[in-house]
């Protein structure tokens, strides 16, 4: 029965996708819900359903294979989103959007061209932002948190790509490298803003101790990660001068220090918790020890590599 239903599903799924088309993805500004795919050719119609079952059950290892799976996935999600709209099926519509965002993220790992990688992640960002904007923070708090965290991560990924482009152009002594520095910093600031919006959805009391008690273990981990990733973003900002660099390092230190304090406060009340074993916590403890030394050296006017 399962195989029969799967066969019917796959026939309907692949009926809207031309697997014989070139697998280069279209990365125009066209919205995801309006993505157009050509119908199957007569040759493709003769392919057995088992071919598609095997294809979808096998992890793609080449760009062409991944692009084909991506097109099938995005087509299916696009079809589903015509019924599960934000106005009538909000939660389901958001989940569909999250799945499409994940498809973009996975597809980007097969793309070798950095410019096209940026385009893919830009579409992810636009998609997540479009999903998040109309949602009520009060009535869809969990969904908003998920979207905020993913959006901040997507912005950080795009920032890293712009930073890499900046370093490549700087090393090549290109005059356009300041443009990429501004792009990377703008994306970092936007990501920091989204992380702060995410943190604002959690209760905050007068003391850190009471704040941690109000959070579950899973919530505490997310809060810890948001502060940790914020610290890394501050430390990766491209400074225009020494004063700005010192300010960025100070902000990174404050965030790392908060991570350590947050986790230590939680462990005092829950000594059996495993959150203290997280790699991010170990890195934060190390940074809390190292960054004051770096700040002192910068204050003395020493030149340090970024």
From TrEMBL:
One Gene Ontology cellular component: cytoskeleton
Keywords for this protein: Cytoplasm, Cytoskeleton, Signal
Domain of life: Eukaryota
Signal peptide from the UniProt entry: 1-16
UniProt subcellular location: Cytoplasm, Cytoskeleton
One Pfam family linked to the record: KBP_C
Principal location: cytoplasm
Membrane-traversing stretches: none
Family the UniProt entry places it in: Belongs to the KIF-binding protein family.
Protein name: KIF-binding protein
Organism (species): Paragonimus westermani
């Amino acid at each position: 029965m399962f195989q029969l239903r799967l066969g019917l599903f796959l026939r309907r799924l692949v009926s809207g996708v031309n697997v014989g088309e070139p697998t280069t993805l279209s990365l125009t500004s066209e919205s995801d819900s309006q993505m157009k795919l050509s119908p199957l050719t007569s040759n493709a119609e003769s392919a057995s359903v088992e071919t598609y079952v095997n294809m979808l059950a096998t992890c793609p290892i080449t760009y062409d294979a991944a692009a084909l799976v991506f097109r099938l996935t995005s087509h299916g999600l696009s079809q589903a989103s015509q019924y599960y709209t934000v106005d009538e099926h909000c939660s389901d519509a958001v989940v569909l959007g999250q799945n499409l965002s994940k498809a973009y993220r996975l597809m980007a790992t097969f793309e070798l061209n950095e410019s096209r990688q940026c385009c893919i992640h830009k579409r992810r960002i636009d998609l997540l932002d479009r999903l998040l904007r109309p949602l009520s923070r009060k009535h869809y708090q969990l969904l908003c948190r998920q979207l905020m965290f993913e959006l901040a991560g997507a912005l950080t990924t795009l920032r890293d790509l712009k930073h890499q482009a900046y370093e490549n152009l700087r090393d090549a002594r290109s005059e356009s490298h300041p443009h990429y520095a501004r792009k990377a910093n703008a994306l970092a600031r936007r990501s920091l803003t989204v992380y702060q919006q995410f943190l604002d959805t959690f209760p905050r009391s007068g003391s850190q101790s009471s704040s941690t008690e109000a959070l579950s273990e899973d919530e505490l981990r997310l809060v810890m990660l948001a502060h940790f990733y914020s610290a890394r973003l501050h430390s990766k900002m491209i400074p225009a001068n020494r004063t700005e660099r010192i300010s960025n390092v100070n902000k990174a230190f404050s965030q790392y220090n908060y991570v350590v304090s947050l986790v230590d406060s939680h462990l005092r009340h829950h000594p059996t918790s495993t959150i203290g074993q997280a790699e991010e916590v170990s890195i934060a403890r190390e940074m809390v020890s190292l960054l004051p030394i770096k700040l002192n050296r910068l204050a003395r006017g020493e030149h340090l590599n970024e």
